[in-house]
């Protein structure tokens, strides 16, 4: 690879990412406004959801960013919500994926399909797990005791957090777009897809493993792979179903039962993988 080609790859990544910058900022500004003015009401609704927990959790979880997965992990650690509701939130959480898609106008039609499929998976498996866990009710405790690690930014207003999130994701985006462009240039899109088990029914298993990485970079990578055509819709669903962002980190930090945390993580991976494998059989 010549120096000129390398420079072109860098330039393409920079230009493509700059085009997305205004969309990223306005998307984060909208999300921060929603969280700032209605976040506490939404969190209380989740905490008091009762038998509607998986349904409410699935709907709230599909809101961009991983704030609700973090909050639900805190609630579960205190026995306020059950495993079914927790998994519903985790499964419907897409971290930064929806915002990345919103930043690509030509792919806006994919957003609704992605959200609907993930919410259906979250509600379905959330209620299945809830029915199983009814025989083993968890103890309750006050919600206020569980919010000590949420790192809320109420004093920062709306604009500063929106700028902070935009810069952080933009930097991730440049690195990932450069890495993808480099791989595609060196290998070609077909070979690169084949490495990720492209055209294979087992590709969702790999994507679900990538999604388990507790960082927004995982959701950005999966979304960009899907937008580039390197992974299928079923695979991006599988990966984003396990992509609960910082939710898993908070779960392992707050819930002292490590065995329980590992079982929940395993269940999350199995549900996401099975869902992805079943979706591979459908004409998406």
In brief:
With 284 residues, this protein is mainly alpha-helical.
| Oligomeric state, counting identical vs distinct chains | single chain
* Radius of gyration from CA coordinates: 19 Å
Number of structural units classed as domains: 1
- Indicate the mean pLDDT: 78
Give an overview in words.
The chain is an all-alpha fold and 284 residues long. It has helices at residues 3-47, 53-61, 67-77, 83-92, 97-102, 108-133, 159-187, 189-195, 203-211, 216-227, 233-242, 247-254, 258-279. The protein contains 13 helices and no strands. The longest helix has 45 residues, at 3-47. The two termini are 36 Å apart.
Blueprint of the fold:
Elements: H1 3-47, H2 53-61, H3 67-77, H4 83-92, H5 97-102, H6 108-133, H7 159-187, H8 189-195, H9 203-211, H10 216-227, H11 233-242, H12 247-254, H13 258-279
List keywords for this structure.
single chain, 284 residues, mainly alpha, 13 helices, 72% helix, globular
